[in-house]
């Protein structure tokens, strides 16, 4: 059987401290999360914030992918050079989708680090990221509900949970998690889901493309055009357009430069370098 | 010593013999350095002629030298390839008053449905979590001239979506959507068989009736004591003279329902399924392939295995992994559906490939376009060994109803106490 890919928030995944070793032919290992996700494979969509080379050969990569709850750590190993090069070529920040296997590192007893070993990764758009957040919310809510049902049935077995209509993986994981995790903070996870939802509906931070090159160009233009009292806003835009930039981009870049404090407005409609 | 006593008990559980004699024989072997397991077998085969019959419910997976009596409830033959050789094997269900087990006969014992047989020297293995009897070259099977009672269990009611191959004594309710009649020859006797598709609110499933129940298309029926087998990678419900079929005076309204993939995986497939999931992998062989103009086979390096070197006809197809977080299946899209999903014609990809002088570029473009895309698919499962494979009959990229989904999640949040 191909292991399904769990859509799971970083905060829940990273708080896992139990591993299930199964007995089947291929002996898959599962990370058991506090809410009972039994994770062998994950699907993560978030913002790529950081890619670093690791190991001597420099082929392996470690990346960080941010979701509304925390950071997923993603490894691209040397035997999957394609994924490693995809990560290396991607801009930071940008939206990324990763399919990976649960990676488990246990340096000593009772210390467990979980991450993902990427099988496939690709840049995606914001819509895909939003959809992923909603899928992760739904999965988390289902497990919270299963946890509550199981607790009210006085530690239900996986069979009982299946009879309530939960998928087999959830039923197994939840009954297992109840045994090994003490005092799971269900309210905390509920809050996490609420926050994730408000992240997409309201106060989300717009992901900004990296305009380093464009910023450079605009600064150049301003330097050329500014006199004592500064360059005229509209003329800078016209000049930039003449040099092949899109009006929308120039305007956005000027706002960024203003925010960064690299330029300022000595008077309305005029700009000057700091 | 304790081990030897245990072994003696085990031997006596399956053969009729004198305890002291068995102990004596066993010790003799062990004294000669024969490992205990082998010694046990040797003693068992010595007394094996008078084997004790086991009830079916007492048979566990992994036993050998099993002796039992049961009635054949169902049997069918199939061809398999064993070490490069085509062989006929027989699969079926065997019942007594304690249980019903599935069995496989690796040779033709001349078995027919309804026969009561005494089996010696069978073994058992595990299948779908249940023990399954295996009748081999070395097993003896003889028909007995008495009848036996079959276990009476209350039939278990199932929705069609929950049917899994291997279930028996099931009760289902459904509407017959289509049916055809054919004649098959069983043991020199012509019999009418009725096959078709039936449906309830949850799914469609193929059925076969081994008896003329006077059914017609449009009937809504309740079937008791049916069983489920695998047919072309999907569950099939089978009923016969042991089953009861009654017409029910109600209608069944089918609505299109997206089936969670774990259910599809559990059932091993299905008919006319609607599924939804994210494309998480595009198989290496997706893209432009060339087919033989005579037989439509896929060419390898311009060569057809049947017709040799031919002028290939290009075709576009995608094999992709679709995952909804609960399960994963493989889906095959033909040219028409591939073009629909990609929003590009095959000819355009041909041009791209010719320009790059490399057809693998098409695969890369498909990955680029489809990875992490949510798709909705209608289709039927194909027989496959490793992963449930669906042949798509329709497919579309799902446009996410963002507001609707948000609303639903918020409602769920409100529902938590």
- CATH topology tier name of the largest domain in chain B: OB fold (Dihydrolipoamide Acetyltransferase, E2P)
Q: Helical region count of chain B?
A: 8
What is the β-strand count of chain A? 12
Could you say how many structural domains of chain B there are in total? 4
The overall pLDDT average of chain A reads 88
Classified in CATH, the superfamily of the largest domain in chain A is Nucleic acid-binding proteins
- Give the helices and strands of chain B as they follow along the chain: HHHEEEEEEEEEEEEEHEEEEEEHHHEEH
The domain count of chain A comes to: 2
**Largest sheet data of chain B:** 5 strands, mixed, barrel
Low-confidence stretches of chain B: none
Q: What is the correct CATH architecture of the largest domain in chain A?
A: Beta Barrel
Order of helices and strands of chain A: EHEEEEEEHEEHHHHHEHHEE
Number of helices of chain A: 9
Would you tell me the structural class of the helices and strands of chain A?
A: alpha+beta
Assigned CATH class of the largest domain in chain A: Mainly Beta
Main sheet summary of chain A: 5 strands, mixed, barrel
Question: Would you state the CATH class of the largest domain in chain B?
Answer: Mainly Beta
- Which strands sit side by side, in order, in the main sheet of chain B? 1-2-3-5-4
What would the principal axes of the Cα set say about the shape of chain B?
globular
Per DSSP E runs of 2 or more residues, the count of β-strands of chain B stands at 21
